[in-house]
Design goal:
Blueprint (H helix, E strand, L loop, with lengths): L16 H18 L13 E6 L5 H12 L3 E6 L11 H9 L5 E6 L4 H8 L3 E7 L5 H15 L6 E5 L6 H12 L3 E5 L15 E2 L3 H7 L2 E4 L15 H8 L3 H5 L6 E3 L12 H4 L6 H23 L1
Parallel strand pairs: 1-2, 1-3, 3-4, 5-6, 5-8, 6-7, 8-9
Bound molecules: phosphoric acid mono(formamide)ester.
Phosphoric acid mono(formamide)ester binds next to helix 2.
Length: about 300
Amino acid sequence: MSELSVKHLLGIKYLTEKDIQLIFETADHFKEVINRSIKKVPSLRDITIANIFFENSTRTKLSFELAEKRLSADVINFSAGQSSVKKGETLIDTVNNILSMKVDMVVMRHPNPGAGIFLSKHVNASIVNAGDGAHEHPTQALLDSYSIREKLGDVSGKNVVIVGDILHSRVALSNIFALKLQGANVKVCGPKTLLPKYVESLGVEVETDLRKALNWCDVANMLRIQNERLDISYFPTTREYTQQFGVNKKLLDSLDKEIVIMHPGPINRGVEITTDVADSKQSIILNQVENGVAIRMAVIYLLASKIK
Ligand code: CP
């Protein structure tokens, strides 16, 4: 039977193309399950999973919890804001205390890049990175590629532009790794101040003219301006950013072809995309959210099969 090459999901960087295809095939099965009248399977009845979130989340937290419950795992949730972390407890002590309650898997979101990698070296459980600072957000990239595959049949050979704050975006980095691994052509587009100097070394091209980027692509993945990570101003005003890098319906309708619009959420409506674009038939934003549950079920199921 096929299995993943890794025992943790720390980043797309550590996966193979075969791993991604296995996750997608498994997600196909779970997508069918969650659309049945009885949406639950008993696969992980003997597994306990802790979701520990040191940073805010809506989609990822709820999606992981739902995925775990659909697989019949026992689930505990931990939010750092109401915990003894506030009293000075270290990450390793916190997680080891949780693990001593016989937890098999930890899903963690943390503001510090590499927090999941660090944890995987110090505790005895399978670790899933649910976003670590500006580093990686692997399940987001998997659900994004899965949504492209669902909409366009394949990821290989497709032209994908990632627009916005590439510098601070874990979604951008994980998407670049995932898309390149599957043979997509990738461009990044945004203000020069929000494009990392090393970005071309990842095999992507830079395009600072949004109209040109959109006319080239099959898919535009519009990123959120992450005000919480912008300690200084990287562009003159939000209005100017929107004029240069925002997508509105007039721009979308004036392109040479019909493109697919994606966004990882949460959306700043009227900044990176307008409401009529977010809610248009070209947008697959809510499909991404739906696919997130199937992808996370697949990831948890495949990792759990390695610890049994
Ligand atoms: N896409 C995403 O990670 O959203 P949340 O921050 O709400 O989890």
